[in-house]
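If you are new to this repository, start here. Below is one unmodified record pulled from the training split, so you can see the exact layout before writing a loader.
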Amino acid sequence: MRTKVRRVQERGQIALLNAFAIIVLLGFAAVAIDGSMLYVQRRLAQNAADTASLAAVMAMTQGYSGTQMKYIAMEKAKKNGFDNTDAETAVVVNWPPDAPNAYAGNANYVQVFITGTVNAAFAHFVYDGPLQVTVEAVAHARRGEDFAPGYAIFATNLDQCQTLEFDGNPNTALTGGGSIFSNSICDCAAGGAGVMNGNGTLNVYNGGQIRLGGCWRDNGGSGTVFPLPVTGFPQQPIPDISPPDCSGLTDFGAVTVKTPQTLEPGLYDSIRFNANADATLNPGMYCIAGSGPGGLAFSTLGSARVSGDGVLLYFMEAAGGFTSSANSEVYLFASDFLVDPFEREWAGMLIYVHPNNKENFILSGTSNSTYSGSIYAPSAYCEAQGTSGTVALQTQIICDRVRLTGTGDLLVNYDMSKNYHLPDAVELTN
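And here is the target side for that same chain:
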């Protein structure tokens, strides 16, 4: 009798153990299967939220209203499987983002929350609530802007002395409201961040200033400066600009122009214009990879005449420098619309020098020679030379060091509409 009772008790214990084992197995199944489903749902929801927020800020750059931006985000989420009208889905678009997000209140950002529900296979045996995931995406719209706003001349070097140098006898005038800036913090005892030598004049009109991170030093010539430079100005960052893409361009090798000739956009080892040459550069991108005589990638000699409207000169990492003789006529104008094979916009960029290129770039020419468009050479030495006439720089000069010199006049006209602008861009911030 006792044996039967013991067997019944053992069967009861086994049943309880089996029941407990089944519950444990269901729990493992819930974790393995439903957990995987939750993971997949989170990935899908995050992708939908990312694309929805990017679509909204892209619409922002195109001038759409806040209501339209939110509608576009909702539609993008719907196309990715998360319809806000579905009872198991919630899509919330905030423009600007809500607190406690770090970008709360900033109208350049859009925030998207997506909540999705997973239909559980096993979890309902051990959990009676809904299985949901909530994800967040925040995207940022960067408006296209001048990449060194307000500066006609910008010397990028952070600590070298005399990164801005004015010498010789040129009468230099800066108009258009732009300023001149040295990012260097060099003090006067070491030579100064900016220096005036010679007998020329430097006048900055229309509210522009001369600003320096370090000291301004006048070396005792009869030259004059107006207005007085502002020293100790905070150093300014400049965005990196990735080089143009030259793929697919025709390779013309090294070219020497001796007679009237028209050049086409393409890849060149070097371009040399002999004295009395008369050359026209057709619109487009000229990628220069090497160097010719004297280590120069682009040079004009004697009374050569070179003109190009709608051009971009890209000096690649191993390319030589640029020089135009004082007797040459040079008329180079950046394009109003230029796109490289990667569909990157280059409107307003006249000369782009690879950030690792440290060659010299000398801009000169006879009376009325004109350079129009941005010159971006963040590691190179740039020099503009006034001659017996007037060399016009309708440009923005961004170089490691900048020197204005010569015997004649330099007219620098800062016109943002003619300079390169950073294109509109959108990006995720989390």
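Two things worth knowing about this chain: The first helix runs from residue 2 to 61. The helical segments are 2-61, 66-79.
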